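Here is a tokenized protein:
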Amino acid sequence: MLRNIYRPDDNNYPSFVFDSNFNLLGTYQSQDSQLFKLTPIHYSLKNDKSAFSILAKGNDEEFGVMLISVVFIKPDLRKNVSHGSTKYNYLLGPGVKARWSSPEINIDLCTTDVARYYYAQKAIESWQDAFASSDTKMKFKFSQKRDYPPFSDLNSQCVYFVNNLIREADEKYSNMGTTFLTLDSQAGKIIDSDIIIWDKEINKIRNYYQKEGHEFNEQQFYYETIMHEYGHYLGLDHQFNPNVPSVMSYADTSKIRAYDIEAINELYR
């Protein structure tokens, strides 16, 4: 069988093996290692043909069934990453800008659950409200999508709710949300991004609060988690300076602060 092999320049990354029709067969860490077989689940090609993605499933003796998402990006050599003030923490580092190609930001709320749609709606509306009185070109738009592709699809950006995975074993700690980002770090472009909210992590905290006799506000936990993750979706990294209030901290994520507004306006200037 004729095989096409993609070998990254960086030897720390695995090679990928395709058949003659460019269906993914598997991967290996080095040319001498055994092929790790993968079963493709979903392919996507970015509308502007700047990247394509593959979602595949593999089975490992040590780790069991694994889901692997791989994105191949065509570098945009016409553009270089731009820089701003280093007081703002962005995805590529302080002052190093990685952003969407337009200040009109769209995302779908991918759920049929009424309550979860409401939580996500309120979180994004908080970003809309925070910029309403700001002299800005930013627009935050969302819509509900009941039929949607998996998170690996490059032409679909979603807030997903996953209810079958625990991220942290300790009952006192929780990873309630994750923002997956695909970046062209040379051009400072966000290619794709999705937000995943881990329902079981929030349920774990609920159980712990109830066991300890504390009041638990489900709506507030979802609201603050999505509002924080949406900041990553826009291009912000964490802000852990205790003297700089920010929704991107872990201390108080109850509302969007002046820092967050200034950082976004600087990012998309």
Remarks:
- Residues 89-267 form a domain with the Collagenase (Catalytic Domain) fold (CATH 3.40.390.10).
- Residues 114-132 form the longest helix (19 residues).
